[in-house]
Amino acid sequence: MSAHTAQTNLKLIGKLILEGELHCETGLHIGAGKGSLEIGGADNPVVKDSFGRPYVPGSSLRGRLRALLEHSSGVLSPEELVYLSRRRGQEVRIHQSDRPDDEICLLFGRNPGRMERVSGEPVDGAQATPARLTVYDAPLDLDSITPQMRENLDDEITEVKSENAIDRLTSQVNPRTLERVPAGARFRVRMVVDILCEEDKALVARLAEGLRLLEDDSLGGGGSRGSGRIRFANLRAAWRGRGYYATGAAEVELAASAGTDGILALANGGAFAAQLS
Fold first, then answer.
1. 104, containing H or E segment
2. The domain containing residue 133 runs over which residues?
3. Tally of domains within the chain
4. Which among 141, 133, 138, 140 has a CA at the least distance from the CA of 65?
5. Is position 6 within any domain?
6. Is residue 194 assigned to a domain?
7. pLDDT in tens, 123-142
8. 130 burial class (0-12, 13-18, 19+ CB within 10 angstroms)?
C-alpha cells in the first residue's frame, strides 16, 4: 500500500494520458445482451456502436482491470466486499473499504452513501473519494480487418464460433453460437489518470500491474474456452500538468511506442515522479 492519508483538499496536479492499441490474440466476445438478438444471427452477439462496428466498452475494460487488481491484492474476503446491486437474485459484489490508503478504492473511486457489506457492518460512505482512472470506449481500427481476414469471416467484421454444451448425465448436446471479433483485430485505447495529490503517483504502478495481469488473463466472455486473450502495444504516455490547461504549457512525453513493461518501468522510475516535484 502507498502512504496515502486522508485528503480533504484534493487539487488537480495534472493528468497522465495513456493511449495505444489493444490487439486481439484470439477472438474477442464482449456481449451486447439478450435484447440485441437478431433473426438468423449468433445466439450471443458482440456489442456494436450505432454504425454496426464492434468496440470495447470502457466499462468492460475498466471493470476487468478492477477485478484482476482486487484478486491480486487479496481484498475479496466477505468483510472487504459490498453489494453494488441486489436484484432478482443477481448479486454484484465489489471491493470497497474506508481505509484512506486503499489504492483500489483510490484508483477506481468509492461509491458515496451507505453500502451493505457481504459480512460485517455497512460502509457509511464517509470516505467517498473521486475515481482517479477514466477508461474510454475503445473503437475498432477498421484497417486491422484485412481483406484476407474478411474472406474467412461470417460477417463483414466478425466471426461466429460454434460451441457445444454437453449434459453430464444424458450426454445430450446443446449447441450454441458466439459472435467474436477475430484474432488480429485492433482497438484504440485511451485512459486518463488524474493526479490529485503527490501520493497518487503510486496508482500508476497499480494500473500498469492491472494491464499486465490482463494480458495473461482474458477480456470479455468465453475466456476459459479460448476467447479474449489480448495484449497492449504501441502505448504512449504523456503528462499534462495543470499549466497545460491553465496557461497552454506543452505536454511532456514520458513514453512512446512502449508495451506494458515500458509503462511499468515508467511508473516505478523517476521520469514520472519528476513531473510532480
1. helix 103-108
2. 14-274
3. 1
4. 133
5. no
6. yes
7. 776 667 899 999 999 999 99
8. exposed
